[in-house]
Amino acid sequence: MEKFFKEQTPSSKIKANIVAEYFPQYSRILLKKPQKKIRYLDLFAGPGLYEDGSLSTPLLIADSCAKDLNLAQKVQLIFNDNQYAKQLEENFNERFFKNAFHYKPLFGDKTVGECEEVTEYLKKDVVTPNPHPTLLFFDPWGYKGIDTLVLAKFMENWGNEIFLFVNIKRIHSAIENNKFDTLMRSLFPTTFRELQKNRRYKATVYERLSLIMDNLADEFEKAVKSPLYHSAFKFQEEDSHTTSHFIIHFTKHTKGYELVKQVFYHFDNIGASLDKDGNYTFDAKVMGNSNEILNFGDQNIEALSQALMEKYKGQKITAKTLFDDHHPTTKFCGSHYVKTLRHMVDNGKIKSEFKDDCSHKVSVLLIDTCILQFN
Description:
The protein is 42% helix and 16% strand. It is an alpha/beta fold. It has two domains: 284 residues, Vaccinia Virus protein VP39 (Rossmann fold), CATH 3.40.50; 78 residues, Arc Repressor Mutant, subunit A (Orthogonal Bundle). An eight-stranded mixed β-sheet has the order 3-2-1-4-5-7-6-8, with helices on both faces. It has a three-stranded antiparallel β-sheet with strand order 9-11-10.
């Protein structure tokens, strides 16, 4: 693991930036209603700093919160790492003055999966209202420590959300190795044997990995026992044409789902075809090489355009109402809807009109005063 923190890989940088971009916006959404405290909880935090000087998630998150006076007053940062807790605290204190945050940051050194105190914290009974809505970043070394039922229990409290980072290659191998049955049952408490059986009928690695991720999402949905939204982002490395890792986000609210899809879109460097794959993607092989980039933007526009025509044919509706109604049923983000609706206007499939007496340079905005008429 020490070698891992020598130099930050492109994928590690993207992973850290996804969480660091999401958390401040998540917090601001929550703060539209009075909140005493919002927590960020990272149970596998690392040292916060690579030897090459790059910042990892803990310090990126802290930077964002320290720059926002409201967040600095409302956010409590809780970091844990059974190996790097002391080093992280030192790096943190070198970067931020003592009273940078109203709530003192906490640094723990527990071993997740073995420490009952951590497990009990995650399994706390539902409290209404939730005194401290929490974003949990769960990034284990591989998959050890992931207990779906424990994490699902954490999700039950209002406002709680999870980013779960998984090494899909290791899970793929472990499913067929009896030595790891106990760990795999923690991941797939109700479908493990069925998953073992079904993956044998999948012809390609892509199909098997998709089956694994679908089963993982289904396990969370069954365990949480309330509407749950999830969106995944996959990582493909420089030396491989297969997927190495996924980061999957879970939320019970459409606003969180809307936000995370937009963040994923920002870091997707191939314009992944969501209608076919359903996952935003970062491919390290295409970094800085525009000739290699496979842009599936047109496929997304065509797929979404067709879906919107089927549902709203002949209707008059505001652009915002359409988006709020339709996006929870898809993997598409706000930017996809804007591009698609403008494309539909250009191609005569819909007409748009603004009712706000303002001059607009574009045909569609996702606002209440933009009226759409479907043919």
